[in-house]
Amino acid sequence: MKILLDTNILLWIAGSPEKIPENILSQIQDTQNTLFFSAASIWEIAIKHALGKPDFSFDPLTIYQALVENNYTELSITSSHATAIQHLQKIHKDPFDRMLIAQAIAENMLLVTADRTIVKYSAPVLFVNKAD
Q1: Domain ranges in the chain?
Q2: Mean pLDDT of 16-44
């Protein structure tokens, strides 16, 4: 299965893996699955890190390098992804989330997220309820 990880899941993997429930962690660790991260997530981390947002304390280059070193596949943003956004429901305006949703649909990937708003889209989404 092709799995696209939302930015919040990438940040949990980097700094708080205990927040990821075992059933999701096992899918992430399953070598039968191909794990993807979007350039949009690295862009989001870079912007919010520069703004000093507390949930974005990780250096974006460090996260990028760790993902590549751990065999995650980068998903570039293409024009077809960008134009697909116009067909998404108007549920919210977050440009990073909307890009990830469009990419998941266009590339036939499962988007793994802890964002309840993303689940409202008609897209292949797996919601992660933070582990206690």
Answers
A1: 2-127
A2: 94
